[in-house]
Amino acid sequence: MKAVYHGSSTLTSQNTSRRKLLLSLADKLYNWCGSIKIQTVSEHPIIVVCISDTHSSQPEVPKGDLLLHAGDLTQAGSFKELQDQLDWLNTQSHKYKVVIGGNHDLLLDPVFTDSFPERIYQKSGSCRSDLKWGNVIYLEKGSIKLDFANGRSLSIYGSPLTPQFGNWAFQHPPIRDVWTNVIPKGIDILLTHGPPKCHLDLGGKGDPYLTKELYRTRPSLVVFGHLHASRGQEVVVFDGIQAAYDGIMMGEKGFPSLAVMALLSLHHKAIGLLGMGRGAFRTKSTRLINAAIVGDRGDMRPRDGISVTL
After folding, report:
1. CB atoms within 10 A of CB 148
2. Burial (CB count <10 Å: 0-12, 13-18, 19+), residue 117
3. Which of 159, 260, 255, 249 has the alpha carbon at shortest distance from 197?
């Protein structure tokens, strides 16, 4: 009887076990660091309402100063669907209403409509140029600065791009970096359709290049959607601890980064004993919101918008 060599499967099993151990220890260490304090709200607050992935629904929207829609206004991307959503948005009382497209908003992507004319029918009176935007501000890989009555201003950068999954609008091959050095420095709010990797992204389905760009720009607020089941919000500080943790979660870093994470965590704990929280040390915190309105498959009931105060 021939001997069977199990060396390869043994190594694979060992690597899998090491990976599970690494992830478990990183999670424990990250949680041990504790929650992050949000910066004190300005004495002149601005209420920002966040929605995404309405998919032609018209949910209840909280009152506020600024309404953000992170794309997928429609289900099929037709002119009628888009115009109905724009008409609905224009009835909202917010001083500013800013939207971007999503992968379902086919008509908004001229590259898609030129490449796949059979997917979206355009005729005179129902082309992209015929949409009546009213006072809705549309961003497509661009930025705007908004001034408010209380004397404050907010700068917003918006982009509809997401890694390709199927054949939809505003998508790019997952290996392509469309984010590095793209977001202008000093931006207060980033509005993007898809999530950054490791953050409210259904277990790692976000864009890793977007995550790395957040370390460079560190906006106060990042609003997105796309992955409905990961709706929610979190607050992070894009510092050394977060970089080590994200690197481990992405599979780019290993046990040496865990050791770095441990040393930095001890340092931050010591800072905490002196009355300073991790969020107050070195850099500001960033709030990330997956504002998907429509639920995941099996539960498509619309949910309310998410309000935050800046």
Report:
1. 15
2. exposed
3. 249
